[in-house]
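Q: Hi! First time doing this. I have a protein sequence and I read that you can turn it into a structure. Is that right? Here it is:
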Amino acid sequence: MTMALSLGRRGLGRVWPNPNVGCVIVRDGRVIGRGWTADGGRPHAETQALRGIDATGAVAYVTLEPCSHHGNTPPCAQALIDANVARVVIACGDPDPRVAGRGVAMLEAAGIEVTTGVLEARARADMAGYLSRVTQERPWVTLKLAASFDGRIATATGESKWITGPDARRAVHAMRARHDAVLVGAGTVRADDPTLTVRDLGITRQPVRIVASSTLDFDAAALVSTQDQAPLWLCHGANAQTGRWTEVGATTIECKSVGRQVHPVDMMEKLGSHGLTRVFCEGGGTLAASLLGAGVVDEIVGFTAGVCLGAEGMPSLGAMGLAALSDAPRFDCVETRQIGADIMHRWARP
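A: Yes, that's right. Below is the predicted 3D structure, encoded as C-alpha cells:
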C-alpha cells in the first residue's frame, strides 16, 4: 500500500476533478502491475495497473475504493472482477454517493476478499482535496505566506523581490505543481504582474491561474500573454465588466460579493463545482485574511526569511477585525524544516 500511495501522489494537481489514486497488483510476493490515475482523471489507476497483465489470483492494493458506477469509463470494481483477482486491499472508502460502499459490495458479491482501512490516514491526507470537494463541496485550500522574520511581505515602498531565497522559491513552484490551481487577489496582480506558472521543474501540465476580484478593475498582461501555457479563471462580483476578459479567452465565474470583495465561501463552492480539488493561495494580504476569516483555509505553509523590515513594512495579512484572541483562527504545526537560508513551517487546521 505504501507503493500505491506513492504512485497516487504522482497525480496531485494533474487529475482533477477525479481523485489521485494509486494501484499495485501483487502475485506470489512480486509486483506484476502498477498504475496511477492518468492526467485529466482518466484512465483510472486500476485500469492502468491491470493493462497488459494476467492478474488471476493476484492481490490488488488500491488507495481509494474502486468506483462502481458507469461514467465515461466502466466501473473499476468490474475491471478487477473481470481480471479474476483474488483479493483487494483498500486504503479508504469513497464518499462519492455514486460509490460509498458499492464498490466493496460489488467485489464481495463476486467472491473477492476485501480488506479496508489499510494506511487510511495517509490516504486521506493524500486525497484531502478530492475528499473535501465531495464532502464539503469545495476544494482543499493551502495558504502560502512568505514573509520576513517580523511578518512583512514588502517594504513600505512595496519592494518585495526577493524576501526569501531561491531554494524557497523553487519549493513554492513545486507546491504549485501539486495543486489544481493557484489563486491570488487583484492587488497582487497589480503589484507584481505575475504569470503564476510553474517554472524550471519540467512541468508539462500547469495549474489553473485564478484571480479573485469583485470588479475586475486591473490589467494582467503576463497572465493574458501566457494563456497558451495555463488557463486563466476570474472570480468576480455581479457588476463586473467581463467582456474584455472573455474576449482574450479567460473563464469568468460570477460569485457573491461581501463589501468590495468576492465572498470567499461562495467562491470556493463555485470552484468546487468547476471540479477543482486543491487550491494554492499566494495572496495578497487582503485575500488571505478573508479566506482565514471565512474558515476555508485548511493548511498554511509559511516561509520565514532571516530579514527584518519593521512596522512600516506591509503585513502578510490584511485586517481581520478580531476583537479577542479567542476569535483568531488557530492551526497546529505539523512540519518545520530549513530550505536554503529560510525556514518552512506547515500548519494544519485542527
